[in-house]
Design a protein that fits this description.
This protein is 45% helix and 18% strand. The protein folds into four domains: 23-164, Regulatory protein AraC (Jelly Rolls, Sandwich); 169-268, Orthogonal Bundle (Arc Repressor Mutant, subunit A); 274-381, Nitrogenase molybdenum iron protein domain (Rossmann fold), CATH 3.40.50; 406-536, 3-Layer(aba) Sandwich (Rossmann fold), CATH 3.40.50. β13, α15 and β14 (359-362) form a beta-alpha-beta unit. The radius of gyration is 25 Å and the shape is globular. The protein has 23 helices and 19 strands. It is an alpha/beta fold. α14 runs parallel beside α15 and α17 packs parallel to α23 (520-536).
């Protein structure tokens, strides 16, 4: 890596943005109890916004990027960004402060760039934050214009508390993040970044992922891939695209692009020729299996950010949970085709969709994911691709059946998922790869569960399973729940536990919502992971 300005990571550098002499002017202060579990706050933020969470937990999605919400967590959105919230309960307290940046043109530009780099700010748990939020909101609501000054003063102090230096390590990580955004075309290594930040390689990698939700190399690959997509769409030759985004070898670039996107650069370009709308979450996975990245789709899944990270650049029209919003968005862009779920849409909405473009309505409850794929392939005129994919899947399933360990093959098997909300049992439809395609007998009672069902440790005994396959999510709450569960007497009394017949499965976040991910794309991923796991035994 060229180290000519790497010192900017360890200490403030010349190319780092700063607020300059700009002034931040409060335009509106909102204190509210969010009544909806999921809501689009702004399709396009009208100004700069400071968002502060109250006591509830959930997620905030800013321009397709998901962040966990903890009490006191604060985020900044810039004008034009899409902002959504998802809460685990209704009635969550939250604060929104809309503000303008005032000053010379140069200072306003500098301050805007500086704010854009500080999307997540502050440290959750700071006792000053809720008090200052209340002061700001109360001052803004005051009838007396002079009393409103207290709101402005509280807002400026709140910004100071949230944006001021939060320790050398936090500052170094923010600068490393900003450096990557500005210099991702250059050659660089994790060791270079860690050394410049004054941390060991391991500590830097772990701290970076904790702070930003993805590893250094994942972030670097995402930046390079998104620019490569733009350049490819201009018609630039592959070799020049590779060089422009930091790869010397076009073959290596192509392999990294396919790893990131799931398609080769040439197939990616071909996938953009037909603008398809995936109207519901599962429709995304159905299209991706056929090598089609949707032009319009909902990418606000709060259980997984896989699609959001990989495809938020490609999904030009983000959809939501609001029928009216979706209809207007699709009416504006006029996609070539629409894929939707029959039971999820009311007749009036179906009529509106079919008036926009040819629409396929899939029977969600009545048909299997294999039938869904076949129907989508026919609708998209990709029957050959669909048939080849299913044939490969059946070959992998046959291989996997030979590799299933004897302890699981005999059954009866129970599949459990441990997440922050508790422990859930997978029903037969959710566990179709293991129960149907691999032929593993399921535990009694599984057949009555359509999708998943939350249970307690005491209720597990009734399933009388000889084997357990457990998937545990990676977040701290899920890990804590798993550790607690293993210490309970009810868990230790289970037959599968006593006989040490408990297998740990993959920890992908989407496994906590297997029905909403009931698609060929996800079933194929799960089967491949099982094959690799069985081979390693």
């Amino acid at each position: 890596m060229a180290l000519h300005d790497m010192k900017a990571i360890g200490a403030k550098g010349a190319d780092e943005a700063s607020p300059g002499n700009a002034w931040f002017l409060l335009q509106e202060g909102i204190r509210e109890q969010e009544r909806k579990a999921s809501r689009i706050i702004y399709p396009n933020a009208p100004s700069y916004m400071l968002f502060v969470a109250g006591e509830s937990r959930g997620q905030i999605v800013i321009d397709g990027v998901l962040y966990p919400l903890q009490p006191g967590a604060a985020f900044i959105a810039v004008p034009g960004q899409r902002v959504e919230t998802h809460y685990e309960i209704d009635g969550a307290l939250q604060y929104r402060f809309l503000f303008d940046v005032v000053g010379s043109d140069e200072d306003v530009r500098a301050a805007g760039a500086w704010l854009a780099e500080r999307r997540k700010c502050g440290v959750p748990g700071d006792a000053r934050v809720p008090a200052l939020c209340e002061q700001t909101a109360e001052g803004w609501r005051a009838a007396d214009p002079v009393d409103k000054l207290a709101g402005q003063a509280g807002f400026l102090e709140l910004l100071h508390v949230l944006l001021k230096k939060q320790g050398d390590q936090g500052e170094a990580l923010e600068r490393a993040h900003g450096y990557l955004r500005r210099h991702y075309r250059e050659a660089m290594t994790v060791d270079d970044l860690a050394g410049a930040a004054g941390m060991s390689r391991y500590h830097f990698m772990r701290s970076f992922k904790e702070r930003f939700g993805q590893s250094v190399m994942e972030f670097l690959a995402e930046l390079r891939t998104n620019e490569a997509k733009q350049l490819l769409e201009t018609g630039m030759p592959l070799r020049r695209v590779a060089e422009a985004v930091g790869y010397k070898d076009p073959l290596y670039f192509s392999s990294q692009f396919k790893k990131q996107v799931g398609l080769s650069p040439r197939r990616y370009l071909a996938s953009r020729e037909c603008r398809v709308a995936a109207y519901s979450w599962p429709n995304i996975g159905q299209l991706l299996t056929l090598g089609i990245i949707p032009h319009a789709a909902p990418i606000d899944q709060n259980w997984s950010d896989d699609y959001r990270r990989k495809y938020r650049f490609d999904v030009k029209v983000p959809l939501s949970h609001d029928y009216e919003f979706n209809w207007k968005a699709l009416l504006r862009v006029r996609p070539d085709r629409i894929v939707a779920l029959d039971e999820m849409i009311v007749p009036e909405e179906k009529a509106k969709l079919t008036a926009i473009a040819p629409t396929l309505f899939l029977r969600w409850h009545g048909d299997s994911w294999k039938a869904h794929l076949t129907q989508v392939a026919r609708f998209m005129e990709r029957e050959t691709e669909g048939a080849h994919w299913l044939a490969r899947y059946e070959e992998q399933a046959a291989e996997a059946r030979e590799l299933v360990p004897l302890s699981l093959r005999r059954g009866p098997l129970l599949i459990l998922n441990v997440c922050a909300r508790g422990m859930q049992v997978w029903g037969k439809r959710a566990g179709t790869v293991l129960y149907d395609d691999l032929g593993i007998p399921h535990a009694p009672g599984v057949e009555r569960i359509e999708s998943t069902e939350f249970v307690t440790a005491a209720q597990l005994q009734a399933f009388d399973a000889d084997a357990l396959l457990v998937t545990v999510m990676k977040d701290r709450q899920s890990q804590a729940e798993w550790n607690r569960l293993q210490r309970t007497q009810e868990w230790e009394a289970l037959k599968a536990v006593r006989e040490r017949n408990v297998c740990l499965g993959p920890d992908w976040n989407w496994l906590q919502e297997p029905i909403l991910e009931y698609t060929a794309n996800r079933q194929g991923q799960l089967l491949q992971e099982l094959v690799m796991s069985f081979r390693a035994l």
